[in-house]
C-alpha cells in the first residue's frame, strides 16, 4: 500500500529528470550558416605625404565551426585580406621613430557573413579609419592631427554583409549555463512534492525522521549552493565534453532531487529510506570529487 502512495512523487521526480534532459538537448542545438564562405571586394583611397593611393583588394571570410571558451554554440569565423595574407586586416601606412600611421579596415568575418550574433556597428558606421600613434602609443584619429601627419582618408567603397540563414548542425556538449536552469527544475519538483505529497494522517515522526529533516536542511542550505556555484564556474578555464565535467553541471540539481525524494519517503512512513535518500546526494558528490581527483593525478 505504501508503494502505491509513492506513485505521485515518483512521477514528479521522473518528470523533473525528463524536463532537464529536454532542456539540455534543446539548448545544446548548434546551428551553422547555410552560406559558409564569402568574398568581399573593397576599395579605399587615401592621401599620404601628397601622394594619393588607392587600395583595391578582397576580404575573404569563412565559417570554421561552433566553439567557444564556455559557450560551445558560438559560431566561429575567420577572414583576412588577400593582399595582406593570413588573417590580416590592418595596413601600416607609415612608420617613424616609435610612431606609426595605420589604416584600420574594421572587417569582421562574422559580421560580413551576416551572423546576427555579432553586431559591431550599432553605434558607429562601418567604414575604415586612419590612426596615428605617437611615442607613448597614444592613438589619434582626429582630422587636425592626421592633417599634421600628412595623411587623410579620401573615399572608400565597402561591401554589404550577406543575408545568411542558419540550420541545425549538431547537438553540442553542455556548459555551466545549464546549472541554474537544472537546479530551478529540481527546486520546482521539491516544491511540488512539499505541496502535493501529504504526510500520512496517523504518522508520527520518530527520531530517525527528525535526523532526516535536519540533514535535509543542512544539505539544502549549505552544500547545494556551494555545488551550484562550483558547477557554474567550473568552465572558468574553458569548457569541455569530458563526462566528469558534464556531470558537474547537474550535481546541485541531483542533491535537490535527493532531498525531494527524502521528503516524500518520510511523509509516507519510510523513515530509514528517507534518511538514506537524503544522504545519497552528498555521498555521490564526495565519491565524485574523489574519482575526479584520482583521474587528474593519473
The share of residues in extended strands comes to 15-25%
Morphology? elongated
Secondary structure class reads: alpha+beta
| Helicity range | 40-55%
Mean pLDDT: 91
Reading the helices and strands in chain order gives: HHEEEEEEHEEHEEHHHHH
* Order of the strands making up the biggest sheet: 4-3-2-9
Cα-based radius of gyration, to the nearest Å? 30 Å
Poorly predicted segments: none
Main β-sheet, in a few words?
A: 4 strands, antiparallel
Keywords for this entry:
single chain; 298 residues; alpha+beta
Give a written overview of the molecule.
The protein is an alpha+beta fold and 298 residues long. The radius of gyration is 30 Å and the shape is elongated. 28% of the residues are buried. Helix 5 runs parallel beside helix 8 and helix 8 packs antiparallel against helix 9. The protein is built from nine helices and ten strands.
Would you summarize the structure shown here?
This protein is α+β, with helices and mostly antiparallel strands. The protein is 43% helix and 24% strand.
